[in-house]
Fold this protein.
Amino acid sequence: MLRTEKITKICICTIWGVILAISVPVAATHGVVRIEGSNYSLEMCQFMQNNFLSLSVYQMIFFASSYLLPLMVISGLYMRMITSLWRHGTSVRMSMESQRGRKRVTRLVVVVVIAFASLWLPVQLILLLKALDIYQTTTKLTVILQIIAQTLAYTSSCINPVLYAFLSDNFRKAFHKAINCTKRFQDYTSDLPPARKTSYARTSTTGV
């Protein structure tokens, strides 16, 4: 079985390792810059100009690696999961409960992918357009729009549990069981359809 605690821990550590490795170039190309004014002094972190990588090229690479690539990966994996889920029940007639379970899982997956794509797209586009000198935060409106876009991106980091709570009965019951420290919902039903049982033919001792 691949779904073991040990393999889960290995996957989590691997994911964090990949994320940290991808983040190294971001830290290497940014630095703290001091801005002096007539009656103020500011320090801000921003992209450091260099002879190897321009801001526009860096932002295009960042857009592809931190938005397009993750979106393609999760969309492809979820699509494969949903396809496998529905293909598994095509050989036999599915019960109503099985159909409802598959529809719930499909709906949850679609909403999660759409939430990720829509919440991260505004800030990614704004940063890309700023690097290309198409979008300028020189007015109050453009600054507010960027703040809203960044807030939406931060929201995506905590919205998945909310989506699961609204779209998954299994998640709600398990969460209720966890926070109450009781066994009230120990025998909750999964959103996935039950496993198909296989009947085995038995031969009698007479050989008939």
Observations:
- Strands lie at 30-36, 41-47.
- The longest helix spans residues 96-131.
